[in-house]
Design a protein that fits this description.
The complex is a heterodimer of chains A (503) and B (145). Chain A has one domain. Chain A is an all-alpha fold and 503 residues long. Chain A contains 21 helices and two strands. Chain B contains five helices and no strands. The termini of chain B are far apart. Chain B folds into two domains: 56 residues; 67 residues, no CATH class. Classes of the chains: A mainly alpha (503), B mainly alpha (145).
């Protein structure tokens, strides 16, 4: 029996009125929990997982899939409305999403986020349905040298996101790399920069750093300028918030980011934060609207949101075929699916076809229900931006506390968030962009692991990378891209104002 | 050379030097624990040299900041730090109520009783929702335990 027949069987098992109701409830609960600042999708799914255990297998799986999609969408809502990233993969959504909110276009940003997530999710699920076994074997050929090459290539984003001064961008990135050195060495567990204390052994929490750099810094900036509300623009009805022309404008952006997100998501070891930045960077280079990136470009929201959703589908490939959960939300989802008998592995599609296709069909349903449910709610969420800042500002600080504290129940993490909030404010005054810092924090851990694994594989040398053509292509492409950008900028004698005053 | 360039270049130098010192401390061969600190230290060294060599380009634009802005940011930062500090003693609910009331009063011209009621409602609602319904651990405080 071919994939399509199995998929139709999955749909016949999943698509009943009863199951659609659970998909609806799952999406609603997932969105509500995901939207709570500081909770994020992973914690959201974990919190709602027990609810599904009271249901029979099929509705429970459908509800789990719906919760997953809802929580992922809810996470990006806070990025757009309040500059609080729900999780690392939605950090880059803050850049243009929050700028759109400030301009009174929160509705359009939220709507394109939902539409982009839906379209990319569908593309990703089609890829998952028909290409999973083939891609899984290809993804396994991506070893540490290839991932090292990919990370080096991804570091070119630092140059293009450095704003007016490449030097300041590099300084910011170097600071991010330094931050990653604090704590236990990820490879053998030796301590670095811990100064003999146990507090620093676990390193600086990434969520705390990001919360500080985005949410707390933003509160500082807004308090300093005595902001009245995030947006004072009068909002139209929800169905008028996004124009069809804007959706059409983003169509190819969504398609490109879907493909990037899906295929890169299939590679174990590549993180969601990296995918978001990669797709954003690609769009910023190819889009006709590139001048507005960083200032509230709608494609700047569509690209990372689409890529994240496609990445989630792509990461289902190693999860289902190899049993590798590539991110924490996926690991929690896997644990939920295993309760109902899912045994991931290379033979999954042969041994449990009905179950696995029901899961995939549930994902399709969750994706559709999410769109139907959330588009009418866009207007309600968008109105949050109009609440006076004297109420929203303290609430953002409160939710930043809850979000950072709840990760490890540690006051030190809250202090870290505050410290990085102050650092972010100082950096904004010095016109040093924070985005390269976040990019390098996201990339450095993978860089170190893959570099050291590559050195180990090469018996103490990286020279053997010359015999790995994929890795070599990535590295050369990275070096060429970086040199080209620097050369073109210096030749033009002027700067591109991607992240002018806002960063 | 401007003061800001000297400060910035010096910070890069110090960070670079600390990376090399740490690399030396943990060094166990190429590909070991010290590899990454050496790489990061080298990047810092190059950056500090570039900043100090091309000061006018490095930090030519620095946004002005006035005393009022500094005071506002310091007020919020210190309030937040104190909030974290006192939470261990008086617990989440009371410290949150106090923190929200102080910060909201600073940011608004609303009457104090309204602020106290509003912030009290927020503190108790978040306490119930996050602690009771979502099962998050929030400090109860040593004094009130």
């Amino acid at each position: 029996m071919d994939a399509l027949t199995y998929l139709l069987q999955g749909f016949s098992a999943a698509a009943s009125l009863n199951n659609l109701f659970f998909a609806f409830v799952g999406c609603l609960l997932g969105t509500l929990v995901g939207i709570l600042p500081g909770i994020g999708p992973t914690a959201g799914i974990a919190l709602l997982l027990p609810i599904t255990t009271i249901l029979p297998a099929t509705p429970a799986i459908i509800m789990l899939a719906a919760i997953y999609y809802g929580a992922m969408y809810g996470g990006s809502t806070t990025s757009i409305l309040m500059n609080i990233p729900g999780e690392i993969s939605s950090v880059v959504t803050c850049v243009d999403g929050y700028q759109m909110t400030k301009k009174g276009k929160a509705g359009a940003a939220l709507a394109i986020s939902a539409i982009s997530s839906f379209m990319a999710g569908t593309v990703g699920l089609i890829g998952l349905s028909f290409l999973a076994p083939m891609i899984a074997s290809m993804a396994l050929s991506m070893g540490p040298p290839e991932i090292l090459g990919l990370v080096i290539f991804a570091f070119t984003m630092v140059v293009s996101m450095s704003g007016k001064s490449i030097l300041r961008g590099f300084a910011s990135a170097a600071l991010g790399m330094f931050v990653c050195l604090i704590g236990l060495d990820p490879y053998v567990g030796a301590s670095r920069f811990t100064f003999g204390t146990t507090t620093l052994t676990g390193g600086l929490d990434l969520v705390a750093i990001v919360m500080g750099l985005f949410a707390i810094t933003e509160v500082f900036k807004n308090v300093a300028t005595q902001m009245k509300a995030i947006s004072n623009v009068r909002l139209p009805s929800w169905y008028k918030m996004i124009k069809f022309s804007e959706i059409r404008q983003c169509f190819w952006t969504i398609m490109r980011s879907s493909l990037v997100g899906f295929f890169v998501g299939c590679i174990p070891g590549v993180t969601g934060g990296m995918i978001g930045f990669m797709s954003y960077d690609i769009e910023r280079r190819v889009s006709k609207n590139r001048r507005n990136f960083g200032k509230g470009a709608i494609e700047g929201v569509a690209a990372p949101e689409g890529a994240n959703n496609a990445w989630s589908c792509g990461s289902l490939v190693p999860l289902l075929t190899l049993g590798l959960p590539t991110h924490t939300a996926m690991a929690v989802l896997l644990s939920g699916l295993m309760i109902y008998g899912l045994q991931p592995g290379p033979m999954l599609f042969q041994t449990s076809p009905v179950f696995v296709w029901t899961v995939i069909a549930s994902m399709y349903l969750g994706n559709v229900v999410l769109l139907i449910l959330n588009l009418p709610l866009v207007g309600m969420w968008a109105r949050i931006a109009k609440i006076p800042y004297r109420f929203i500002g303290p609430m953002i600080l409160l939710f930043t506390f809850i979000g950072t504290y709840s990760v490890r129940n540690n006051f030190f993490d809250v202090g870290t968030a505050l410290g990085f909030g102050i650092l972010g404010f100082i950096m904004s005054k010095l016109r040093i962009p924070v985005i390269p810092l976040v990019i390098s924090i996201i990339l450095t851990d993978t860089l170190e692991r893959s570099l050291r694994q590559t050195i180990s594989m090469g018996g103490g040398s990286v020279r053997f990378i010359l015999h790995r053509p994929i890795a070599l292509v990535f590295i050369l492409a990275g070096v060429v891209a970086m040199s080209l950008i620097i050369f073109l900028r210096s030749k033009a004698g002027k700067v591109e104002e991607y992240f002018g005053s806002e960063q | 050379m401007r003061l800001v360039d000297i400060i910035f270049g010096s910070i890069m130098t110090v960070l670079g030097a600390s990376c090399f010192i740490e690399a030396h401390r943990v060094w166990n061969g190429w590909g070991g624990t010290g590899t990454m600190p050496v790489i990061v230290g080298t990047i810092f060294a190059l950056l500090s040299a570039l900043i100090l060599a091309t000061p006018s380009r490095a930090l030519s634009e620095v946004q002005a900041i006035d005393r009022k802005e500094i005071f506002s940011v310091l007020f919020i930062a210190v309030s937040f730090a104190l909030y974290i500090f006192i939470m261990n003693w008086i617990g989440y609910f009371l410290s949150t109520w106090l923190f929200l009331a102080v910060v909201t009063k600073y940011m608004s011209r609303d009457r104090l009783p309204i602020i106290i009621i509003w912030t009290g409602v927020v503190a108790i609602t978040t306490d119930i929702v996050f602690r009771e319904y979502l099962g998050l651990y929030l400090p109860r405080g040593f004094i009130l335990k």
